[in-house]
Amino acid sequence: MKKTSLKVAALALLALASSCGQAGSNGQLVGDQTRMNYRAPLPIGMVYVPSGSYKMGASDEDIRGRNDATIHTVQLLGFYMDATEISNQEYRQFTNYVRDSIANTILGNFKDNPDGTQRLDMKHPNYKDPELQDQLAAMYVPAEQSGWGVKEIDASKLYYHYSTYDYVSAVQHPNEPKTKFMIEHGIAGSTERSIYPDTTVWVRQFNYAFNEPIAQQYFWFPGFNKYPVVGINWLQAHAFCDWRTRMWKNERLKQRMYTESYFRLPTEEEWEWAARGGRNESPYPWGGPYIINKKGCYLANFKPQRGNYAADGGLYTVPVDWYAANDYGLKNMSGNVSEWTESAYFGGSYNQMADINPSVTYNVQEGEKKDKPYMSRKVVRGGSWRDVAYFLQVSTRDYEYQDTPKAYIGFRCVYTETVPALSNRRPVRK
Question: Which residues have C-beta within 8 Å of that of residue 58, sequence separation ≥ 6?
Answer without folding.
Answer: 65, 69, 71, 283, 393, 395, 396
